[in-house]
Amino acid sequence: MSDIQSPPVPKAPVPAGSTEREFTVKERTQWQIVVRRFLRHRLAVVSLIVLILLILLAYIGPLVWIHKLEDLDSPTDIMISASNPMGTDSLGHDMFARVLRGMQQSIKVAVIVAVLSTGIGAPYGAIAGYFGGRVDTILMRICDVLLTLPLLLVAGALVTGRGGSVLTVALVLGLLGWVVNARVVRGVVLSLREQEFIEAAKALGAGTFRIVFNHLLPNATGAIIVQATLDIAAAILAESALSFVGLGVQPPDTSLGVLVNDARSAVETRPWLFYWPGIMIILIALTISFIGDGLRDAFDPRQMRQRR
Amino acid sequence: MLAYTIRRILVAIPVLLVASMIVFTLTLFTGDPVEEKYAGRNPPVPQQTINLERERLGLDKPVVVQYVTWLKNLVTKGDFGPSIESTRDIGGELGKRIFVTLRLIFFAIVLALVLAIISGVLSATRQYSKLDYTFTFLGFIFLAMPAFWVAVLLKQGALQYNEATGTRTFFTIGERSVETEPGLFNAFADIFGHMILPTISLALITYAAWSRFQRSSMLEVLNSDYVRLARAKGLSPRKVLVRHALRTALIPMTTVSALGIAQLIGGAVITETVFQWNGMGSYLITSIATRDRYAVMGWLLVAGIFIVVGNLVADLLYGILDPRIRYE
Amino acid sequence: MRTRSKRLGGLVAIAAASVLVISACGTSGGGDKQQSSPGFAACEEKPNECNNGPTKPGGSIVVALEKPIPNFNVLDSEGNVFEAGQIMNATTLTPFTNQPDNSVKWNKNWLAEEPKLLSTTPQTVQYKIRNEAVWDDGTPVSAKDFQWNWKSLNGKDCPKCTPASTSGYELITAVEGSDNDKTVTVKFDKPYPDWKGLFQLFPAHKGAQQGDINTPEGLEKAWEYFKAKPDWTGGPYKVSEYQQDVSVTLVPNPKWYGTKTSLDKITFRIITDQAQQLPAMQNKEIQVMVSQPNKDMVDKVKGMAGVNFNLSKGPTWEHIDINTKNTYLADVALRQAIFTATNRQEIIDKTVGSYFPSAAPLNNHIFMPGAPGYKDVITSTGQGKADVEAAKKILTTAGYKIEGDKLIGKDGQPVPAFRFRYTAGNQGRQQSAELFQAQMKKIGVEIKIEPTTSLGGTTSSGDYDIIIFAWVGTPYVGDSVSIWSTGGGQNYGKYSNTQVDALMKEASQTLDETKMRELFNQADEIMAKEAYVLPLYQKPVFLAVYGDYINIRNNPTNVGPTYNIEEWGLKADS
């Protein structure tokens, strides 16, 4: 909830009251329903298209764009021109090339964070929720320890000396960030484990591993995916916050956070340096948030409007 | 419930202890504090001074001894250990700064809560209406903006306003002016003028998340059986909304905000830096920069305690508000 | 003017940019590349006297400081920071003050005559204190204050004191008072040419109230006492209020005996985020800012109505260092080739030159241009001028080969990439690194840029191949010996040359200033040829102040703008 760690994100709803509900639809058709519901969320669909375009731009753009990242051959400090649509900085870097690279790196950070958080958090939460009791208590206390650790210090410790690469930054964010995913998944599993299909699996002699990975996690997919989209949006902002205090991705490599922070005092004098990367951060975070919202509605029928 | 509370607090002790060990270990990786303190001085700092400083900070002792000494002094004497700045008392500093931060976040939270509840409820009752889309969109925009972006833009706006009106309604740095015109009104206006920008900027970010949360918990309640029952009984829509739906929907919101407040206490780093408030967040960042090990650990304890208490309060409130839950 | 002619390239750019220029032009007018606004126009010619004039009594002013005050004992290793110095300039007494042009001037406020060198063997210096000079409780300023200074700082009498430096004081054998303690005679063991930089007086009698200052314990207590907010002053102003990390307020010293002050109140406001000083300045929350500038800061201030500004070169200089411990860089030829291919003008033009047109390559490691002793030792070596052909020739003569864009060493193996370190977050250095990288490509030298978050750790552990940073200079050059001599504490790149060592040692014990400079320059010529450190430029210091105030001027030395705080005031109505 801190401004440095990223703005707080709404959690996927997993209230206590959901225990009694049952899935009445079959697995296969559920996905179809989800897709159909998602498509009904117009903003989410538009966002998905915009996001895909942004990602294509970030990864294909640099291959075809006339300026390379490290080129210093553009005129310095211009706001806009045909060959420098986002202007240039005082060294003659093309901002468009930099912004593209920044987008790439920011997206990379975000995706690694999401994968790490989900990869660690989901099984961790599932195990805690499934076993309950002492195991749950110990696992959750470990989460508490992680929650109290200041992100800045962890980043500081890992970034010192070598300077933070995209990977270090993603690692820091991911290793501290999975706790939220674990809690969400644990919540879902707590309500799932009492249900008949788990009882049935147990009765059939399925091992713990099998129950967790084949039965519990697939049924928590909705919550997991929604949480992952939120992680991505949060990671993009967290990366820019880390850059604010100088602990993010280190130059000469760049990211959107680095670009926008470098231009902190240029808001009025060279606004193009400040606004372009900032707008990209907002665009990416915004589209992902909308997609997450659409997914939530799609996975959770209770969020849909019912006729009165 | 008392037993439960006590148990939770007892459990928090090992959690904080482990966290402090981890933090202590992490600070070992951030470099030698004395070396950093005297980096690049010309003329060079005498060796005698360096030795004395290392001795004062206990750096001449083995690492394990350093940690144990810190813990012992903390428990037995309430001493937070030596700061890298010889004249700074870490305990006193934390005590001072926690109030600065509390003052900063109190109004921000109130503002954010009020806005979030209003827009969350309106959004939910008129789902997929223009109003809902507007609130959703606004919420997501604020959610997508880097914190310092909001702050910088707010400052720009405030400066424009000041210039246009020829007054100095808004101040951009600090908690208050060092010197104000005499009079209660002037003092009040001064504090208000300093407070408004950081409050808004923190409130906007917080609001964004909370309004989403309020919307979804409200939706859930509106679609629940008992609200439908209430409607079926013929209660007026207004009564259904306020008496039944809102009251229930506020339960999860309470817990979310209790947790949020706890985390904000340690984490309003950017807002505090941009507006130059000397609170907990800015203390953390300076302490990390100067490798002030014991200051970071002291910070961890204070912020950690707030998180533990916030968590506990959240759970207890949940129990009080929602009769289905009982802690034993 | 490079950027401007380039700007003519794109019509769109002009049209778009001019919109911004209009809003950013404001009152200062004039050229795009101006270094001083009207109030400070004379500063380039007469840095010690510009922006002066009559003041009117009264008024207050708020000055921004970039860092909190660690403590007020500026002699302490911790309190010895620029920010504390700004306050203590107003309360303590020094015999000499560094002037804006980096010269030193004796202090007429409290000294009766210029301190003089009575004898050179042994070195003996005499100070005469004015009879009027008193601390604010009426106690006269006396030899006792000198003695306290010496005892606390000589490294022997107070083993628990933590001075920032003992250099000079450790050589003093006696500090004697005569003529009712108003005449002070200081004797040295060995010659100490930088004696003018010695002594900064604190009230010894206040220290003595803490304990017997003839004992180590008493001295230590006094030392600690002076770290706290000073409830005393011997200068024009006194600290009246101190809010840690927020502000320091000064009010006039009623017992002040020097140049009459006119301001009623001077407040120092601590703003640790440099970017936040600009809005605060615009909003008149502060009236004076002193900063290491960047392009946007300068451009922004130019557009502020009523604000005068000035950029001046200081004795702090940026340079590129090579680590001689690197197996490849231990070879002088490779080092020479690297520096020969370096384009200093390009680095300057694209970084500091974009807002400070008079930035120019620096050509000496010891003395600054304009100061006596400055001599160009770099140009004749051919370094820094982007002479790629000459650099290639040096390499091939020495047995290297350049194949394509790869440099092949004498052993036939390609030379690996060198790690170029710079301070994380310092944009100017980051940009210099990128330019340097591009320049080195031309001679096949590959550069890997790596920021460091801990400059101190990186330099002292020698964890770099090439590094860019700055030395803070003073008018006193003796201190720089440890940067260049074999085994010197700050000789991070481990340069070693016995001839240089001998010359430096001799220079640092020569009281004849002309001869001393001559010796330093001889040493510097040898060093320059061996391509250890390439000086880039003197860093500018930026001062901005509202035009209602007068007698405030930029002092880019370590003393800072408050060196003449007693003269500050509101401009008299004309």
Number of strands of chain A: 0
Instruction: Label the CATH architecture of the largest domain in chain B.
Output: Orthogonal Bundle
Determine the mean pLDDT of chain B. 86
Terminal Cα separation of chain A, in Å?
36 Å
What is the helix fraction of residues of chain B, given as a range? over 70%
Largest interface: A-B, 60 and 76 residues
Largest sheet of chain B: none
CATH superfamily descriptor of the largest domain in chain B: MetI-like
CATH class membership of chain A: Mainly Alpha
Rounded to an integer in angstroms, the radius of gyration calculated over CA atoms of chain A is: 22 Å
- The secondary structure category of chain B is mainly alpha
- Low-pLDDT stretches of chain A are 5-22
CATH superfamily of chain A: MetI-like
Which series of helices and strands of chain A comes N to C? HHHHHHHHHHH
Total domain modules of chain A: 1
What would your notes on this structure say?
Chain B: It is a multi-pass membrane protein. Chain B: Belongs to the binding-protein-dependent transport system permease family. Chain B: Keywords: Cell membrane, Membrane, Transmembrane, Transmembrane helix, Transport. The complex is a heterotrimer of chains A (308), B (328) and C (574). Chain A is mostly helical and 308 residues long. Chain A has helices spanning 27-40, 42-64, 95-131, 133-148, 151-159, 166-192, 196-203, 208-219, 221-244, 256-262, 271-299. Chain A has one domain (34-64, 87-303): MetI-like (MetI-like fold, Orthogonal Bundle). Chain A has 11 helices and no strands. In chain A, helix 1 packs across helix 11, helix 3 (95-131) packs antiparallel against helix 4 (133-148) and helix 3 runs parallel beside helix 11. Chain B has 328 residues and is mainly α. Chain B has 2 domains: 2-77, no CATH class; 98-321, MetI-like fold. Chain B contains 13 helices and no strands. Chain B is globular and about 85 Å long. Chain C is α+β, with helices and mostly antiparallel strands. Chain C is 26% helix and 21% strand. Chain C contains 16 helices and 21 strands. Chain C has helices at 2-7, 11-25, 82-88, 143-153, 204-208, 216-225, 277-282, 295-302, 332-341, 344-350, 388-397, 427-441, 455-460, 481-484, 498-507, 513-529; strands at residues 55-56, 60-65, 96-98, 104-106, 116-120, 123-128, 172-178, 183-188, 237-243, 247-252, 265-270, 288-291, 307-322, 401-403, 406-408, 418-423, 447-452, 466-472, 533-546, 549-550, 569-571. In chain C, the strands form 6 sheets. A 6-stranded mixed beta sheet of chain C has the order 12-19-13-18-16-17, sandwiched between helices. A 4-stranded mixed beta sheet of chain C has the order 2-11-10-9, with no helix packed on it. In chain C, a hairpin with a 2-residue loop joins strand 5 and strand 6. Chains in contact: A-B, A-C, B-C. The interface between A and B is large, with 60 and 76 residues.
